[in-house]
Amino acid sequence: MAGAYVSNMAQYNKMYRQSLDEPEKFWGMMSKDFYWKEMWHTLNEVNFDYTKGPVSIKWFLGSKTNLAYNALDRHIEAGKGDNIAFYWEGNDDESRAYTYNEVYEMVCKFANVLKSKGIKKGDTVAIYLPMVVELPVAMLACARIGAVHSVVFGGFSADALASRVADCKARVLVTADGVMRAKKLVNLLDIVDNADKILKADKEANHKLDSIIVVERNSKAGPLKEQHEPWNKLMAGASADCPVEWMDAEDPLFLLYTSGSTGKPKGVLHTTAGYMVWSATTFKYVFDYRPGDVYWCTADCGWITGHSYITYGPMINGATQVLFEGVPTHPTPARCWEIIDKYKVNQFYTAPTAVRSLMSFGEQYPEGHSLKSLRVLGSVGEPINPEAWRWYSKHVGRGQCSISDTWWQTETGGHMITPLPGATPQKPGFATKPFFGVEPAILDPDGKEQDGACAGYLTIKRSWPGQLRGIYGDQERFEKTYFQLFNGANEMISKDKYITGDACRRDKDGYYCITGRIDDVINVSGHRIGTAELESALSQFEHCVEAAVVGFPHPIKGEAIYAFVTLEQGYEMTPEVQKALKQVVRSEIGAFAAPDKIQFAPALPKTRSGKIMRRILRRIAAGVTDVSEFGDISTITDPSIIDELLENAKHAS
Ligand code: 6R9
Fold first, then answer.
1. Is the ipTM of this complex over 0.95?
2. Whose CA is nearest to atom 12 of ligand 1?
3. Can you give the CATH number for the domain in which 552 is found?
């Protein structure tokens, strides 16, 4: 692509080699793009191997900086304060533009509001907001004064919100009264009040909220009560002058809870300097963002994609972006294409599930729009199947756009394996090549690194600036989850690499294709949901004895949730019970995690050591009825269970 930052593979290869061979020089060059109150003196100090001491990751040592300063003040000082930061598009027909000057003023005022609530450097603030401008503003206000934000996606239930607030010990919660999602009113205040009650009643958690700040977005949610403080009222009394807190490189920036294969969600910790450099550098190169471009990411700030590619990466680059409150199919399946033409969007970033959903309405919707401003089409969150890739490229990109299938995780802070527009020749279904500084290694079942074309466990051999620094309050879980890999016989097969939890394939050209999780995490519409969390939610149902959950292929969501539930003696799996079980998951986690199918299980298939044989359950969920396709079933304690499960599968719903 003419004029791209990286315009061909020779240039990519040269930069990639330098990033690995001369990292000081490479990151020295890249870090010139930022404002450093104090420059770093040591690039990194890293230990991945727990046998040599605690796992520890530090980057850009000796530096002092601030992400909000880099995202706002720096651009304003350069005379760009009147540039548009956000074109906000509401769920229905509202819209409004915000300049960098306006966002700066809101951030400073809200930072002062937080200070007036006693928030100081190192304190945690919980944010539970829909996609209104106050969401990135609240995040940047925290960053400005060194407070740690913990954003909870607006689709989580009161229970899930309460447990996250208690875990990170946030005393201030920022929320909204209500919001429309397509045609449905989401009453956030009700959820927040319930979470508040749950916290007050939970003696063990021993934690409560001191203040609840409410953005008045939709009054249909009902009037504010005594415990709610209106955002506007607090802002009206706040000064717009707020000095920046200069942060050390490894001072915490945020926590973001994500699901793993075991236990409750973990608070992934990101810190200051490394995350800043990683989110902003990947944004610039992967979207080939150039001054004047209009960029749009449809993610919610409640997930990592919204953190790195709405609030931080784009803002630090001084980008103009669309901030979208609604859903891609409301009021019609042409909504995205209308917005792209309205603002002449150059880079569009969404999830495969959205592409597949829009695809199901037919190409007449994108074809009915110009879309000629588009240059880069991004994809994130789950594997994009070649059919959806081709539709996206042909009907949205008109064969003229680069398709950027970006593989990364909450834990990686930003893109890891991704094409660079203009440089990387593309292949449908492939996330293609590693970003600068990323050194993948594919391990076989014995933990041995493989060469050339191969398939296996995806690991990363060395640290990169955006890597997570820990799991909040749990160093042991951090080390076990990300740096120790075990085989089926529970032998440790790797202890000095970052374990991604994904499997992948590499072809003869060195291109990577991510094939899915190797752990018990289900990826539904790009949302990570742990089977352990789902099972513990289902077991809250009063007549549930045991539950096992697996994923099964779904044409739009990628994966959907299938639950096998054993009920107390004498209880039948009626449609009412199925409904009640789904309701339990809605209230324990959130509606987006409700199982798609539930079936009765007289018992679960287990090995002699008591392990649930999920492999068998996955086959049943996928509709396989021929037992010869179930693989080795010799270790099952009671083979007759399989026939009973297959019989009951007919009534799954
Ligand atoms: C950014 C984000 C991470 C998991 C990851 C993988 C899956 C993400 C992908 C992809 C194939 C891609 N994933 N991007 N799989 N191709 N381009 O989604 O973070 O919510 O933490 O999920 O999502 O399985 O391990 P997160």
1. yes
2. 407
3. 3.30.300.30
Distance in Å, CA 500 to ligand 1 centroid: 10
Asked if the bond preceding 331 is cis, omega within 30° of 0, the reply is yes
The domain of 638 spans 522-651
Q: Which residues line ligand 1 (CB under 6 A)?
A: 258, 303-305, 380-383, 405-410, 431, 501-502, 514, 517, 523, 526, 528
CA distance 298 to 319: 15
Residue 197 domain-assigned?
Answer: yes
Specify the CATH number for the domain of residue 211. Answer: 3.40.50.12780
In a domain, 200, yes or no: yes
The C-alpha atoms of residue 17 and residue 11 are separated, in whole angstroms, by 10
In a domain, 221, yes or no: yes
Across the strands, what pairs with 28? none
What is the phi/psi pair of residue 524, to 5°? -100, 115
Q: Which of 242, 258, 274 is the last residue of a domain?
A: 258
The residue whose CA is least distant from atom 7 of ligand 1 is 382
**H/E element, 441:** strand 440-443
Whether 195 contacts 587, CB under 8 Å = no
Find the catalytic residue in 193, 451, 519, 643: 519
Strand partners for 211: 172
Domain contains 192? yes
- Residue 251 annotated in active site: no
- Ligand 1 atom having least distance to the Cα of 410: 21
The domain boundary residue, chosen from 203, 236, 258: 258
Whether the predicted model's global pTM rises above the 0.90 cut: yes
As a whole number of angstroms, the distance between CA 25 and CA 184 comes to: 52
DSSP helix/strand/coil, 440: strand
Domains in the chain: how many in total?
2
With a cut of 80, say whether residue 621 has pLDDT above it: yes
> Which atom number of ligand 1 is nearest to the Cα of residue 407?
17
pLDDT for residue 1 is more than 70: no
The mean pLDDT of 109-125, rounded to a whole number, is: 98
**Alpha carbon 376 to its chain's center:** 21
pLDDT-derived band at 483, boundaries 50, 70, 90: very high
Residue nearest to atom 4 of ligand 1 (CA): 409
Radius of gyration of the chain (CA): 24
Dump pLDDT digits (tens) for 168-221.
999 999 999 999 999 999 999 999 999 999 999 999 889 999 999 999 999 999
pLDDT interval class at 637 (50, 70, 90): confident
- Which atom of ligand 1 has the smallest separation from the CA of 501? 25
Strands (E), 219-293: 228-230, 247-248, 252-258, 266-271
Q: Are 219 and 232 in contact (CB under 8 A)?
A: no
* 3-state SS, residue 195: helix
d(CA 304, CA 85): 20
